[in-house]
C-alpha cells in the first residue's frame, strides 16, 4: 500500500552544462531532494558534464546531433526497466527529409512496480511552423498512442516540456499568439486529446483558475521580470493515480534556465 510521499520534479534546463556553470543545478537538487528528477533539453551526453550527485542513478537519452535536445533522469529509486524513445514505432515516421532517422533523445520511460514514469521533450513547431505538420500528424498521435499502450499495463506519469500552452489561461498574451508556435490550434488539439484520453493535468487539477502561472519566459524584453510567460511544462497522470496525487507546484523563482522546474508529490 502507498504510504510515503514521492517527490517528482521536471525541468527543461536548456543545456545542462550551462545551468551547471551558473551554479544553479546542484544547489537546487540538494535543496529540494526530489526522489526522481526528469530533465529535458540537456544538450549533452553523459560524461560531458561533471555532476556530483552520488545518491542518484543517471539515465541519459542524448541526441545524435551535438548540443541538441536530449533527456535525462536522475533517480533514487531503482527502476524495473528503462526504455528509450517510442519502441516499435514505424521508423519512417521519424525521418528527416533525407530519409535519415531522427535520433533526438526525446523520451525516457522508467517502469516501477505500480506505474510508469515518462519524461518527454516534445518537438517545437519552429518559429516559421516548419515542423508543425510533423508535430500534429506524426509526433503527437504517436506519443499519445504510446501513453495509451503503457496504461494498458499500469498507470502512467508523464512529464516534460510539451511545447504547448494548452488553454488561454496558460500564457500571458493568448490573443497575440493564436497562430504562433506553441499556441496553434493543431498543437492545442494534441493537448486536448491527452485530456480526452483520461490523463490529468496535475497543476490544473489543483489550481483550475490560477492565472499568471508560467514555466517558460522569452529571453527578450525582460519577459521573466514582467512575468510575460507561458505554461508549457507539465506533469500528467493517469486517472487511476488521482487519489494518490497530493500536490502540484511550479518553481518560478528558480533560475538557471529560461524554463523553471515543475513538481508533483504522490503517495508511494
UniProtKB/TrEMBL annotation:
The active site is at residues 121, 161, 259. InterPro entries: AP_endonuc_1, AP_endonuclease_F1_BS, AP_endonuclease_F1_CS, Endo/exonu/phosph_ase_sf, Endo/exonuclease/phosphatase. Residues 9-259 form the Endonuclease/exonuclease/phosphatase domain. Gene3D superfamilies: Endonuclease/exonuclease/phosphatase. The keyword Amino-acid biosynthesis does not apply. The record marks 233 as: Important for catalytic activity. The record marks 259 as: Interaction with DNA substrate. GO terms for molecular function: DNA binding; DNA-(apurinic or apyrimidinic site) endonuclease activity; double-stranded DNA 3'-5' DNA exonuclease activity; metal ion binding; phosphoric diester hydrolase activity. The record marks 163 as: Transition state stabilizer. Its cofactor is Mn(2+); Mg(2+). Mg(2+) binds at residues 12, 41, 161, 163, 258-259. Keywords: Hydrolase, Magnesium, Manganese, Metal-binding. One of its GO terms (biological process) is base-excision repair. Probably binds two magnesium or manganese ions per subunit. The keyword Hydrolase applies. SUPFAM superfamilies: DNase I-like. Belongs to the DNA repair enzymes AP/ExoA family. PANTHER family: AP ENDONUCLEASE, DNA-(APURINIC OR APYRIMIDINIC SITE) ENDONUCLEASE. This is Exodeoxyribonuclease III. The lineage of its organism: Bacteria, Candidatus Uhriibacteriota. The gene is xth.
Amino acid at each position: 500500500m502507498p504510504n510515503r510521499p514521492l517527490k517528482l520534479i521536471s525541468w527543461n534546463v536548456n543545456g545542462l552544462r550551462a545551468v551547471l556553470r551558473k551554479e544553479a543545478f546542484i544547489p537546487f537538487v540538494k535543496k529540494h531532494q526530489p526522489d526522481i528528477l526528469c530533465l529535458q533539453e540537456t544538450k549533452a551526453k553523459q560524461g560531458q558534464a561533471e555532476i556530483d550527485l552520488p545518491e542518484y542513478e543517471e539515465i541519459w537519452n542524448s541526441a545524435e546531433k551535438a548540443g541538441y535536445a536530449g533527456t535525462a533522469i536522475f533517480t533514487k529509486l531503482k527502476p524495473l526497466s528503462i526504455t528509450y524513445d517510442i519502441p516499435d514505432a514505424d521508423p519512417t515516421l521519424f525521418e528527416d527529409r533525407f530519409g535519415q532517422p531522427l535520433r533526438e533523445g526525446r523520451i525516457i520511460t522508467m517502469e516501477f512496480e505500480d506505474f510508469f514514469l515518462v519524461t518527454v521533450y516534445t518537438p517545437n513547431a519552429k518559429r516559421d511552423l516548419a515542423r508543425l505538420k510533423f508535430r500534429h500528424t506524426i509526433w503527437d498521435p504517436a506519443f499519445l498512442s504510446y501513453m495509451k499502450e503503457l496504461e494498458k499495463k499500469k498507470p502512467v506519469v508523464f512529464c516534460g516540456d510539451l511545447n504547448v500552452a494548452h488553454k488561454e489561461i496558460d500564457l500571458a498574451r493568448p490573443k497575440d499568439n493564436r497562430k504562433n508556435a506553441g499556441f496553434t490550434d493543431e498543437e492545442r488539439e494534441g493537448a486536448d486529446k491527452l485530456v480526452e484520453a483520461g490523463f490529468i493535468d496535475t497543476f490544473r487539477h489543483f489550481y483550475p483558475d490560477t492565472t499568471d502561472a508560467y514555466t517558460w519566459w522569452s529571453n527578450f524584453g525582460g519577459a521573466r521580470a514582467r512575468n510575460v510567460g507561458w505554461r508549457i511544462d507539465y506533469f500528467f497522470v493517469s486517472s487511476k493515480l488521482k487519489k494518490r496525487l497530493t500536490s502540484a507546484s511550479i518553481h518560478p523563482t528558480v533560475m538557471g534556465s529560461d524554463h523553471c522546474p515543475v513538481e508533483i508529490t504522490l503517495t508511494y
